[in-house]
Amino acid sequence: MNKSSFILILLFISATFSIDVLQYCTDSDRDKNCNGEPILAVCGWYDSEVDCVSYPCAARFSSVCAACKLSYVEKVTLGRCPSPEQ
User: Fold this and answer.
1) I want to staple 68 with a disulfide (CB 3.0 to 4.6 A). Which of 29, 51, 52, 80 is the partner?
2) Torsion angle of alpha carbons 77, 39, 4, 22, nearest 10°?
3) What's the whole-model pTM score?
4) What is the pLDDT of residues 58-83, one digit of tens each?
5) CA-CA distance, 68 to 35, in Å (whole number)?
6) In a domain, 40, yes or no
């Protein structure tokens, strides 16, 4: 199974079963080369070291790889980040 097929299956499963966490970032994720990664809108959630002033404590990224490259991103969820509460 190639990477694109895996992503499509993951999208189907997440839409069907509402998966919250797509992936927790690991040290090996931070060293990956992101060239050739499929573009997939994800929300990268910051760890407790980041001092957030409002919800969500997260940012939108173009791929899991791009989000996990940053040391302060703890986990990634599929799709856009939630809108700030008003």
Assistant:
1) 29
2) -10
3) 0.71
4) 999 999 999 999 999 999 999 889 98
5) 14
6) yes
pLDDT in tens, 10-33: 555 555 444 467 899 999 988 889
DSSP class of 45: E
Structural domain contains residue 13: no
Nearest to 37 by CA among 76, 80, 4: 4
Report which residue type is found at 68. C
- pLDDT > 90? residue 46: yes
pLDDT recorded at residue 44? 96
Positive or negative CA dihedral for 52, 27, 75, 44? Answer: positive
Contact predicate 68/23, CB 8 Å: yes
Residue 6 within a domain = no
